[in-house]
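User: My advisor, Dr. K., asked me to get a structural model of this assembly before our group meeting. I'm new to this, so sorry if the format is off. These are the inputs:
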Amino acid sequence: MSSIAPRAIALTAHALARDVATAEAVEALRGAGVRSIVLKGPSIARWLYGDGSPRPYADSDVLVSPARLAAGARALESIGYSLHLDDRSVPGTDSHHLWLQRHGDGCRLELHWRLPGVRGPAEPAWRELSANTEVTSLAGVEVEFLGLPARALHLALHAAGHGFDLEKPLEDLRRGVRVAPASCWRAAAELAAAIGALDAFAAGLRAISEGAELAARLDLPGARFSTVMEMSAARASSRSVNVQKLLCDRGAAATARELVRVALPSAHFMRFRYPGARSGRIALATAYARRLVSLAAELLPVFRSVGRANLRSRR
Amino acid sequence: MTGPASSGAVRLRPGAVEWREVEGEIVAVDVQTSEYLAINRTGAVLWRALEAGATADQLAERLVDRFDVERGAARRDVDEFVATLASRGLLA
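Assistant: The format is fine. Below is the predicted structure of the whole assembly, which you can bring to the meeting.
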């Protein structure tokens, strides 16, 4: 008779079931000649949660070469997945994946074509990340995990992507900082520099105090994203944090262009986001009008919050 | 007493289960059937030994060392545990 909480058992069993689904996906990709690397979930649980703490996850994450993305999506369609969302169609996001779902069993899979926070070209980044992987067995299938430096890098990028919104990436990062040796983090920093992810890497590490110390030891560049992390720590709205992230990353002109794109996204996105907009042109125009009105109301506090953060940083 | 594992070493069949240790216990999913198993701390000791492979005597020895139980009782527990896993096709 087990003595651990039924919830811990259920969460772990669910995660293991995802591993079975991930292994099936890797086999399908391999069958179509698409090399893949399993991200997050099992690669983090095995590496950082060997102490027996539960590390739940609810979906599969797989990285493929950007050049093989379409072939990968087709391979996954052959085992029942269908495209739910291509995040390149979502304005204002750091796009990096296709989100697929399988209706029969509710499996969700994120087919990544790059890691979040990577600013360099995606194909060379894939070549760097796929150059050193760890081959292992997952649910009876041979799969690849990122090598440890790339996995450490991904921990920081994941934390940077979520700021302080989610505890799980922060706990993963805390454990990674504790467990991985300095040489691993130094290699992660070199890899981050090679793929154009150094700013996000530094920002992610600075999301936790142990990481900030490590960032200082690694002599990482100044906190270009420090205002983003401060706003996140102060529980600023996610929209404010995203605007500030854009401002830090791409400057004022690009941020203004992006805000226009957020206000007036593609019709495809509008139909996805607002089901009522699917019934015709007038319904679509009405959805745009409603979006503009609601955004105007939302953006005023965002601009105030961003303005205050930038003023503070200049003092 | 002759149990299913008395004649030689047995081990978890590679690829048959995906499992994780949680708070000292084992949660496993049978890859073929998608059924899950929750194994308590006593079973977890045997499970870890079965990952590398062990005879029934070696498994019983582990229980004696770990839980200070009488050897005959330990062997009965081992035989029952191993038979359960074997009936599910999880042993090689």
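One thing worth pointing out at the meeting: Confidence is low (pLDDT under 50) at residues 1-5 of chain B.

User: Perfect, thanks a lot.
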